[in-house]
Amino acid sequence: MSLHVIVGAGPVGSTLALQLADAGHDVRILTRSGRGPDHPRITRVRVDAADPASLTAQTRGATVLYNCANPPSYTSWEEHWPPLAASILEAAEATGAVLAITGNLYGYGPVPGPMTRDLPLAATDHKGRLRARMWADAVARHRAGAVRVAEVRAADYVGAIEPMNSMAVLYATQAVRGRPVLTFGPPDVPHTFTYVPDVARTLAAVALDERSWGQAWHVPSPPTRTVREVIGDIAAAAGARRPWMIRIPRPLLRLSYPVVPLMREIGDLLYQWDRPYVLDAAETTRTFGVEATPWDEVVAETAAALTGRSAVVTG
């Protein structure tokens, strides 16, 4: 079987590594810490992926290089993403490996309807504009014939996620503990959530299919529900009472911006929670046959993880 190299051992990187290893592929997972999931076919390597020479050395012989990395903090994207993305792109070009990128929906900015993959990247915040620039750089190298690249874009994650880096899991954690759920937007607005293993399956599907190269694809996700419905489903599956949901007043949130950098970063993206945020991934399903995991399975796994009844994906 072929060698697959994954940068990052967070929820997506770890899940992808296990899926590929279970399918019989050799996997090399690269992180600063040398951590990653245990599996006979997975090799964990400590490396600074922002160093092009080191990353290229670890990528040689790989069929696919997956960018499943994330900067060390949500407030450090502008500092860490540009050199990291450039290094990964350089390693793919130097080794001939297909580059499969884990993306998100920030680059689209506020949109009036469902998000399809042909929408322009018209972000209004610095994180979205950064993601758009990173994709533009990758596509330019692809069109120049220097690298083969595809990106998969997902909505907010749901599932057994550790560390917690999803608004759905943050809200569900409060609900499962029987606490009032404090939300950043109106809880009755529809919002798409994406199951982490579906992100990994989509990455694996597009990586070796030349029809995907030079394009971005959306991850098939469960039917869109309101935030109240999503958190209510998870709470019920965990045996908790129906959650009481309270929207945090926007003026109160703004008061925290000068003293809490994380809240300032979240504030730039609150448009995602103030209006319907709907992901359309029908073309991915038609082209590659990838379908979303049934919602009841997603709910059961998320609830089990939050109540300690199953192992949580770690990285």
From TrEMBL:
Domain NAD-dependent epimerase/dehydratase: 6-209
Pfam families, sorted: Epimerase (PF01370)
InterPro entries, per the entry: Epimerase_deHydtase, NAD(P)-bd_dom_sf
Coiled-coil positions: none
The name this protein goes by in its record: NAD-dependent epimerase/dehydratase family protein
Species of provenance: Georgenia alba
Classification of source organism: Bacteria, Bacillati, Actinomycetota, Actinomycetes, Micrococcales
